[in-house]
Amino acid sequence: MAWLYLLLAGALEVVWAYSMKQSHGFTRLVPSTITIVAMIASFGLLAAAMRSLPLGTAYTIWTGIGAVGAFVLGIAFLGEQVTPMRILAAVLIVSGLVLMKLSSNA
Predict the structure, then answer these.
(1) N or C, where is the chain less crowded by C-beta within 10 Å?
(2) Closest C-alpha to 41, from 25, 62, 23
């Protein structure tokens, strides 16, 4: 169950990062509200996952999901540039996440 909580927490990190961008510095009510609610839910699920997962594993996977997810959303919905270096960086992050998961005993 901890891994499910962690995956959901990571997905919510992507939601709040995207919503924060859409809030234009917290000047727009709906995206600002989504940001805050998603942040609280993401932190709550991360805390639940950390009850049984090691700190380093849980935090690394959570931030990695957020980083790669935000990268993908930025390209798909915000017109951010796709370059070989950015793609390589994302692949390296995902590789690190896989290694972290494989090294975890939980």
Answers:
(1) N
(2) 62
d(CA 7, CA 40): 15
Look up the pTM and report it: 0.86
The token pair that represents 71 in the structure block: 């990268």
Instruction: Give the count of alpha carbons within 13 A of 15, CB side only.
Output: 18
> How do the domains of the chain map onto residue ranges?
2-103
The closest alpha carbon to 22, from 39, 10, 34, 11, belongs to 34
Which tens digit of pLDDT belongs to each residue from 17-54?
Answer: 999 999 999 999 999 999 999 999 999 999 999 999 99
Contact 54, 101 (CB under 8 A): no
Cα–Cα nearest to 44, from 12, 18, 77 = 12
How many other C-beta atoms can be found within 10 angstroms of the C-beta atom of residue 23?
A: 19
How do the residues of the chain divide into helix, strand and coil, expressed in percent and rounded to 5?
A: 80, 0, 20
